Amino acid sequence: MATKRESATLLEPVSAKVKPPPLYKVLLLNDDYTPMEFVVHVLKKFFAIDEERATQIMLKVHTEGVGVCGVFPKDIASTKVEQVVDFARQHQHPLQCTMEES
Ligand code: TYC
Fold first, then answer.
1. Residue 1 DSSP code
2. Distance from Cα 58 to the centre of ligand 1, integer Å
3. What tens digit of pLDDT does each residue of 14-29 get?
4. How far is Cα 83 from Cα 77, in angstroms, rounded to an integer?
5. Going by CA atoms, what residue is nearest to atom 10 of ligand 1?
6. Residue 35 beta carbon below 6 angstroms from any ligand 1 atom
């Protein structure tokens, strides 16, 4: 049987093909009906963003149509989107939240 040292010399060199997992931006979209205070509340509750930054993001979405809440691995981004949409629907608001690879 080959010793550890002998077998190591028999291995073919393997090129590193492992990529880091892709990250996803979670986006909020503007609409004409969701109250501004509700959007700020969502940003604080689900993304741990402070009042000042949450207000900035909300106003960016309000004026430009879309804004980034955060960047996460795929499963976390997808859970955040689901939580935000569920919460908005529970409160009868049409707020839209989506994700895209960053
Ligand atoms: N445009 C909404 C209003 O005037 C506010 C709003 C901001 C809604 C951001 C959605 O993602 C949003 N009440």
1. -
2. 7
3. 677 899 899 999 999 9
4. 10
5. 30
6. yes
